Amino acid sequence: MFRTALRNVLAHKARLLMTVLAVMLGVAFVSGTLVFTNTLSDAYQKSFAKGFDQVDVAVRPKYQDSEGDRVGKDAELTQALLDRAAKVPGAASATGVVTGFTAVAGKDGELVGGDWQSAGGNYWGTEDPRYPLVSGHAPRGKGQVLIDSATAERAGFKVGDTVRLSVDGPVLTPTVSGIFTTDDGNVAAGGSLTLFDTPTAQSLFGKKGTYDEIDVRAAAGTSQEALKAALDKALPGKLVETTTGERLADDQAAAIADSLSGLKKSLLVFAGIALFVGTFIIANTFTMLVAQRTRELALLRAVGASRRQVTRSVLVEAFAVGTVAGVAGLVAGIGIGAGLRSLLGSLGESVPDGPLVIGSGTVVAALAVGILVTVLAAWLPARRAAKIPPVAAMSSLHAKATTKSLVLRNTLGSLFAAAGIAVVLMATNMDSDSAQGPMGIGAVLLIIGVFVLTPLLSRPLIALASPVLRAFGVSGKLARQNSVRNPRRTAATASALMIGLTLITGMTVMAGSLQSSIDRMASSAIRADYVVSMANQGPLSPDVAKKLATADGVTASSPLRNGESRVDGGTQWLTGVDGAAIGKLTDLKMTDGSFSVGGTRIVVDEDRAEKHGWKPGSQLTAHFEDGATRRLTVAGVYEGNDMFNGIILDNKVLTPHLTDPADMRVMVKMADGASDAAKKGLVKTLDTNPAVKIQDKQDISHEIGNVFTQVLNMVYGLLGMAVIVAVLGVVNTLAMSVFERAQEIGMLRAIGLDRGAVKRMVRLESLVISLFGGVLGLGLGVFFGWAAGELLATEIPTYELQLPWGRMAVFLLLAGVIGVLAALWPARRAARLNMLTAIKAE
Amino acid sequence: MTTTPTAGRTTAVAARAMELSKIYGQGETRVVALDRVSVDFRAAEFTAIMGPSGSGKSTLMHCVAGLDTFSSGSVRIGDTELGSLKDKQLTKLRRDKIGFIFQAFNLLPTLTALENITLPMDIAGRKPDKAWLDQVIQMVGLSGRLGHRPSQLSGGQQQRVAVARALASKPEIIFGDEPTGNLDSRSGAEVLGFLRNSVRELGQTVVMVTHDPVAAAYADRVIFLADGRIVDEMYGPTAESVLDTMKQFDAKGRTS
Fold it and tell me: Which of A783, A777, A776, A780 has its CA nearest to residue A428?
């Protein structure tokens, strides 16, 4: 029997190729993901071990929790602490570290590093072992900086050049005193690193006299552990925590592995979807193979093979196919892994070098997935094969599915679908956290239900297409009838496509609605013409707001200043604004009271008002950073959004209590509205600083849109895999149908259907099946998108379902294109069929 | 040309093969299926082609009916020379001028009996001649079963649908390839009766390949093929006379 099974694999090479391809794609995705993530985390691990070479023990400040009326903040690492650390027995030296954001403008005026990757720091003393100098000397005072060699080379900076920098808004123009090399990951990834002398760095980054971290080096003969113990003894444990360099490297690597595992999980989910779709195709293929071999299998039974032997022979065949697919998938996966890494590298992400890691786990997973999926998918067809009675060897007709089993199937499917819809609807009425589980379960139930029901749905849905098909004459009529001829097969084929399109449509509906709602929320609340912020969304110096307030053409402006306070023993975030101007700059929707900020009058957002029972007229006591308290009166309650939430109060009240005032944004209203000239004027006011973004409403919408577009494109790419697998399924089904109907096609050719019409017939059948799957997918996708949106709507008040009609039309068109493409080869085969052999075949 | 029996007949020729040869393979594997066969099929005549297996009888029919290509010689259906036609024109010719009845019924299982009957006209995009269609359906006795699908019909009924399909488009000539091969003798007799009636009463031309002397006895004329050549012919055949002729070939085949 074993030999029979293997011979069958070889005899149906071409037919099994599609199956192998379908499994292979899924396996390649799985093993590619594993290879990629393993390789990346291995490389990161190595690079971090190197990055902490200069650190034996790091001393970091402990966060002093807010307590009672006191606002929480980091403990200060003062010069005194550093001096004490340096004198600990076993310490060779102690370095104070200060870091922050520093944008560098190239000679073209644009940022050299990216928005996020422009870092700044301090150069310790006259010779800092962390940053070996290539040329020049250590920076001294405000007028000198060091630039990393990669940035210097890219932007063409030399020692003695003047560079334009910005830390928090105002432009600085120091000279380059030297150039250094570094293995900093940020720089390797294309970012820039600018170093100031320590006092300058402290004052620029708002940390006068303090450090972010103290790195202590051990003297020869002292271990990291011993040094850590000595430091723990010498320094106040309430204010600082100490960590060895080795531990830091390990922690960092673990954090990377952790964040990669998230990526790994989501990639594996998509791989799983592709494999899931693949199982339909495998099951379909084996069902068709078994049906075609009915006589042969019956003959085996007639000459004495047992049922179990027949089942086993089919499963052995599946095993062989699965093994081939697993091995091929593994090889392809290694390629995908390598490809992903270089793709990421070319996108400007930080990708450390390292060898490709192909773990034994990857190999086992690839083979196991390939074989398991194939054998499981072939299980039902194999059982069906065993049920073929020996007498079937004598009759010529293929065993036909009885309507009775469809009745059972329809009942089951209806139950599943109804349960799925019920659970999803129920979930939409729950609160969003607890609803996620039921929503997922409901979605799976509904998809299974619809899948089980597809044979039933195929007739009425495909009948809808018949007016169009009628235009194609006999070809169209025959195509329609052929497509509903074997409802199970049509269903399995269409389902594969349906799943991919359901997910793609659902994601698109949700993302589109979410994007427009966030967009509406952000832009509807803004009355200002421009919003000014740092490129990295970091804090702006109050100087920027001051400059803008007096700029030409500005009629009103207000900074959005950050603050923290304690109210009734809890932390409250504060936004300080110019009370006189803010009314002209925002248009917040008030749910209660009026928008009035000035003196002790404040407005609070709805969520907080509800939580604390604040109403217009309520009084509250705020404890500020510096320990001072003020009594404030609630004037109104507004609907919060991304840009505005928490307590909004007048800067005249807030600023005196801040040690280091910093603004998140500055809103500006122009006399003549937004225009190119107005924007140019503002840019000039801020010294043409590339680190500062000046955006009008449209720019903000654009920015929000871009984030969604990127995520959606990625999801499309990943789901594309499932769609490709589905295409293979359509090809497979059509090829099989053409093969089975050879005699009919031969007869049609004989009585006068020409080659073109035969081709058209096959193509139209393919089109009908694909569109059927596409319509089901769109329908389900819209439903899921709506349901998920219902959950989001509880969190985002402006959420509103938006159906992306254009995109949906594109998806349907895509399904049609898939249908036509999938039919290319089967249609050709059908048209080339030899009439005579086809007619005689029996 | 010596075997072309034209003497004494004046009716028009519906199909004609001249010096028709069909050769498969080359060199060692060369097989001559038809060896310079010349034959006329006259209009309104029922011709049976007989011969042992491998004699070339089916090949002759396929070549004359435009289903297969031939190596040399010429074939005409009415005024049309087949040798020069491309696949598309050949398909059109089959559709408009030829009717087919196959051994294995060859109906489309998705279509009803009526839809199967009108299929050639549907393909051509023509409306069937209603009166003629009714007459044909009446003749083959399918009036009550037009809405049935092939799977709901018996073998004999299915073949009657095939006969009606061949007749419905009023082709110049109908070819049958062992049309009674899969039928019991009663159903076979019915189908052959319809074919003979269509010739006698409607003036249809029918050419049928068969190996059954009883079936051949329904024809006006029988042509005998052996080894790719026409070796004999007979008018007004009876089952006995045909059987006798066949036996002669068998005897000859055994002695040679």
Answer: A783
pLDDT of residue A116 exceeding 70: no
Chain B residue with CA closest to A749: the answer is B91
> Does A481 contact B at CB distance below 8 Å?
yes
Contact A714, B86 (CB under 8 A): no
**Rounded distance, CA A475 to CA B31, Å?**
38
- pLDDT at position A394: 59
CATH of domain B44-64+83-255: 3.40.50.300
Q: Which of B91, B104, B122 sits opposite A842 (nearest CB)?
A: B104
Chain segment A398-413, per-residue pLDDT in tens: 444 444 567 788 888 8
A531, A667 contact by CB (below 8 A): yes
Are A58 and A252 within 8 A, CB to CB? no
pTM of the model: 0.75
pLDDT at B45: 93
Q: Give A481's contacts in chain B (Cβ within 8 Å).
A: 110-111
Q: What was the pLDDT predicted at B126?
A: 84
At A137, the pLDDT band (50, 70, 90 cuts) reads very high
Nearest to A458 by CA among A498, A488, A420: A488
Delimit the domains of chain B by residue range: 44-64+83-255
Q: Give, in degrees to the nearest 5, the angle at Cα A417 between A415 and A423.
A: 100
Indicate yes or no: CB of B106 within 8 angstroms of CB of A743: yes
ipTM: 0.84
Determine, for residues A473 and B119 on separate chains, whether the beta-carbon distance falls below 8 Å: no
Give the chain B residue nearest A745 (alpha carbons).
B108
Whether residue A740 lies within 8 A of chain B, CB to CB, comes out as no
Question: A304 is written with which tokens?
Answer: 């004495």
> Is residue A336 very low, low, confident or very high in pLDDT (cuts 50, 70, 90)?
confident
Residue A842 reports pLDDT greater than 50: no
